Amino acid sequence: MGTRGEIYVRNSSSVIELWRHYDTYANFMVPYFKVFAKYAAWCAGSQRHWLTYPEDVAAMLIAYDYEVVLATRLRFVSKGLLEARPDLKPRGRINDFEKVWILDIPDENQTCDITWKVRGFSFKFQADAEEMREDIRKGKDAMFENYMEKIAEFSVKPLNDEGGGCRLCGYPGPLIIVEDPPVCIYCLLKNLRDDFFKAEIERIVKVAPLITQITR
Ligand SMILES: [Zn+2]
Fold this sequence. Notes:
Order of helices and strands: EEHHEEEHEEEHHH
Largest sheet: 6 strands, mixed
Shape: globular
Number of domains: 2
Helix content: 25-40%
Distance between the termini: 31 Å
Bound molecules: zinc ion
Number of strands: 8
Number of helices: 6
């Protein structure tokens, strides 16, 4: 059984509704959103305004979620990459959830000092889910206590300037597959034909148990 949840990416002009099957409790989702903020900042690069469009942020969130799934798969060799898909998807007509997460982003085209606000809630099962969704869409936040109990609230700045990402490209997401020094799977694939890089990878493979597992 997963902990299913609805996830809303919202600003004052639009709301994108998503749904996740597994692990939408706070212990998983708080670090998930914090790493996602770095990942999205890295994806956007100098196009900072992308971080203010709910449609773009939702697309990046699904891409990030897929990388979380792939990273888990890569750590368990026997599972492989078959039958892997993002666990986060457009909600559509799915009506099955315990948790609700709202990611409020600034109104469009702001390019500096962007701050996202994240709030997580447990849904009260006797409440009306469709009414709740209407109020979220309309921004009637004062009504939330009728439907939900707050479990987490924090602000996060989508910035990728703290280091710790891939040594070669700065990528800060889940697909760092060599840990010391950190190298992402994209740089690994991109540079496989480079003799110097190949020699470096062979050297790293000898000291990094993670990648040894992957290539075994
Ligand atoms: Zn890289």
